[in-house]
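YM 10:42: GyrI-like small molecule binding domain-containing protein sequence, as discussed on the call
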Amino acid sequence: MKVEWRKQEKQIYLPKEKPELISVPEQKFFMIRGQGNPNQDDFAERVAVLYSLAYAVRMMPKQGYTPEGYLEYTVYPLEGVWDLTEEGRKLDVLNKDELVYTIMIRQPDFVTEEVVERAFESVRKKKPHPLLDEVVFDTMEEGLSLQMLHVGPYDDEPRSFALMKEFIENNNLERTTLLHKEIYLTDARKVDLEKQRTVLRYWVRSVH
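YM 10:58: structure's back
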């Protein structure tokens, strides 16, 4: 059996193009923090080091080690939690140089600290990366969330955020933080801007 997030976890990863509530369970991630414009090389390097670790885990059985509970699976998509610097929050328009982010790739449930250590070891040997020591392995439980699929360029996301804001106001909800999450279902380098597919997610709670 192959575990494919597009098939088995549609509710989390393939929402409709309209806001919907979902409860997101605790998940495991390789994560790395960064700051600045995501169109620059530094962001691409941070993405690259995450993928090198994610594929090191995925390919372990081919390298002669099969973790306990391992199931063949599709590597999860890149995700990012976005914020702004204090300076960036004061501006009326978005300055991408003031963005602060944590990007991450989810790991399957069988991944333990031992598996993580082996992944780091493997990457250090095969393809050492200067940012490797900045990556952490951690869990994240998002709980009640409002999400929707955004189709189109990243710069057009405010259109979808406006729909999410309206949903919140009409359904006795409030955001628990100004941070938001994005899940990238398409590779921005390979897909036309108009066809980019991104899950947008706010963390919310009920207000009575």
